[in-house]
Amino acid sequence: xxxxxxxxxxxxxxxxxxxxxxxxxxxxxxxxxxxxxxxxxxxxxxxxxxxxxxxxxxxxxxxxxxxxxxxxxxxxxxxxxxxxxxxxxxxxxxxxxxxxxxxxxxxxxxxxxxxxxxxxxxxxxxxxxxxxxxxxxxxxxxxxxxxxxxxxxxxxxxxxxxxxxxxxxxxxxxxxxxxxxxxxxxxxxxxxxxxxxxxxxxxxxxxxxxxxxxxxxxxxxxxxxxxxxxxxxxxxxxxxxxxxxxxxxxxxxxxxxxxxxxxxxxxxxxxxxxxxxxxxx
Length: 281
What we know:
alpha/beta, Rossmann fold, 2 domains, 11 helices, elongated, transport
């Protein structure tokens, strides 16, 4: 039967981590009490010490339970999905505490996570479980690749981007009637909004080292890309112009053109000359 924590403070909960080290009477020594205090301090929860454990938030409870484990002075901590049901702030706080323990106290932390973005950023080594067996083991740089994550999870709808550690929904498979001129990351919110609205689009000319290019490959019906650090070639310009003239609308997400993307400004002028409907962000 699960223990009930009515009338127990957060300090009481953390103190239970020290009882295995007490004598026959189970009385905490001053040394034990200091370890409880330090554990609460480690998880930034000293202010919760006298609060009713049942009256605090899920994120606060996670910190208190972690403090209970810390005050046992373990060499290894095993956590089962510790970030589940936590908002993003408390996820980051909890994982930051764990990473600090690993680096400063040399505690080994073994935990299961379903959040790929968090696992990629915090893990030193990753074990991939497929069904009931270990399929792969290695550092995150080897595990988190587009190809392997698609294979591991059997992703057929949408895509995973290892550079960003994020998922993208599948592109709209219709005839595109919108051309997006973007660059320097300005296109990403436009691409995602169009995808949410179920509108297919073409975008270009985007340099392949641009943030926009990464997302455009996942969401656009067609991407006209240029090699990194190169001025837009006449060939790519002509390809983009041909695609643009087939569209009914043009969205320009950038308000500045430089040497490298000067031909995108020419695309915008071409759309104006042909009387195509233009939206500027």
